[in-house]
Amino acid sequence: MKATVKSDKGDRRIGSPEETVFLELTRTTDMLSRGLAGILKSEDLSSTQYNVLRILRGAPDGLPCGEIASRMITRDPDVTRLLDRLEKRKLISRCRETKDRRTVMVRITADGLQLLARLDEPVQAGHRKQLGHLGRERLRSLTDLLLVARSQVL
């Protein structure tokens, strides 16, 4: 007989503790992501676009497209189209390298930096609202657990 677990959705049959954790992580990720999406909507920005801008803010000299793709939180199969939309809004710029014309370097623009600056406090306030109740020690423990879990995923 399969065990049942109480959740905010009522009693549920579960197959294993691993499945339970997977489902709870998925539900939590969805809930947290919806909160961030609401904040980003005010600037007509998706979470993947926001992720790219944050990556580029941390690389003032720019990054090749492939490096951006590898650093993204969620994988986007069409990074080129994502970058096209950001470039159209003048939030990033792209140029071919002179040393290796195959490499396209992407840099955040002043407009992109200003947009992130406007979003910094609302995003941080959103994170505090969603997760601040856990306290610093629990947040550190949760981070450590997630890092360990992710280190074993192929």
Which percent range fits the helix content?
Answer: 55-70%
Just name the CATH architecture of the domain at 43-121.
Orthogonal Bundle
Q: Give the C-alpha Rg.
A: 19 Å
- CATH class category label of the domain at 43-121: Mainly Alpha
Distance between the termini: 31 Å
Largest sheet: 3 strands, antiparallel
Rounded average pLDDT: 89
Give the amount of beta strand, in percent.
5-15%
**Number of beta strands:** 5
Specify the structural class: alpha+beta
What layout of secondary structure does this protein have?
Blueprint (H helix, E strand, L loop, with lengths): L3 E4 L2 E4 L3 H25 L5 H11 L5 E2 H7 L7 H10 L3 E5 L7 E5 L1 H22 L3 H17 L3
Antiparallel strand pairs: 1-2, 3-5, 4-5
Helix pairs in contact: 1-5
Description:
This protein is of the alpha+beta class and about 150 residues long. The chain has a domain of about 80 residues: Winged helix-like DNA-binding domain superfamily/Winged helix DNA-binding domain (Arc Repressor Mutant, subunit A, Orthogonal Bundle), CATH 1.10.10. It contains six helices and five strands, in the order E-E-H-H-E-H-H-E-E-H-H. The strands form two sheets. A three-stranded antiparallel β-sheet has the order 3-5-4. Strand 4 and strand 5 form a beta hairpin. The chain starts with a strand and ends with a helix. The mean pLDDT is about 90.
